[in-house]
Amino acid sequence: MPSSYTVVLTVLAVAVAITVSLLAALAAGLLARADGASPAAAVSRGGIAFAATLTLLALMVTTVAGLLT
Q: Which of 44, 53, 3, 2 shows the shortest CA–CA distance to 23?
């Protein structure tokens, strides 16, 4: 059974990963819109950036968690 610290750190890591992914998606969407893309294309680019960033951060969190246990 995981300790309470492990659960808290896991929740915190997930929250940080989602926050960073949302910021990356927002930046990508705004930059695409500033470049002249349509609103639909800007949202699409933001979604792709969100998915890519979240995937990379999830991989990093999983790797670090595996090293710590």
A: 53
pLDDT at position 8 is 84
Q: Is the pTM of this model over 0.90?
A: no
In this predicted structure, what is the pLDDT of residue 4?
A: 78
Beta strands in the chain (DSSP E): none
Query: In whole angstroms, what is the distance from residue 49 CA to residue 54 CA?
Result: 8
Integer Cα distance of 1 and 21 in angstroms: 30
| Tokens read off for 16 | 């940080």
Q: Say if CB 49 and CB 32 are below 8 A apart.
A: no
The alpha-carbon radius of gyration of the chain (Å, integer) is: 16
Contact 29, 42 (CB under 8 A): yes
